[in-house]
Amino acid sequence: MNHVVCCLQPSVRAASQAQKDDVGTSLVSVYNKLNGLETPPSAELVRYSAREFAPLIEAMGGDRTPWLEDSPVKIVDGHCLAASEHRLKELREAAGRALPGTSLVVYEPAGGLGSDVVPCEDGHAQERSLFGTRLKTVESGELWIADRNCCPRAFLGASDNRGAFFVTRAHQGLPLEMLTPLRSCGRTSTGQGAQPRVCVGDTQGHKHTFRRLRITRNEATRDGTTRLFILTNVPRQISAKRVAALSRKRWTLETALKHLEAYCHAAMNP
User: Is 51's pLDDT higher than 90?
Assistant: First the structure.
């Protein structure tokens, strides 16, 4: 399957025939296995590739300028195929068609690598429901950048408890308590910033104090939003302007996915 995805072979049949001595089983058995292919091997393939490529990139001097000194940066975001995307035209409106899948992708901009993925066969699953598996991977000193769909209280609390940092869009349903008045913190590249300190309770009932940056935009976003709220626990010496700049850089992940799709011809031809 890896050879087919990377376009080294035109089909599963061709890939099986090219490696028949190594596969050592019938084509029917290969298809039977693929019909029940589990998601963990796909996730491990991403992690394995990152482990193999990271030393090569470092040895070749390919590491990029760090976004934040002394803090490895990880961007996490969900990726979901639309119901009609990457699907045979004849099956797009069929009632019994397979559901599109979704995934939670972790990208490390220093090396330009997708280092982890949480695949889910249910395309209707909420991104934040997949975040439980990420909690155990959070390490002290890391900076995690995410959008508002990746802002569960459990993740915020676990990151803070482990000495990790985050910069994430705050969703409207997040319960919080204002601790200080809203004060102006100057202009960012997209609008006027202001921030108070807020208290957020995690799922264990523990209280955490964060900064919540409010940006009143000069221009509305694509969905008509004129105010953005960014939640962070980075040290106070990191200015609100820099926090806003880090949040904007999460789109680097979307660009990386498009590059991967183009380089590997990952999208099926219509």
Answer: yes
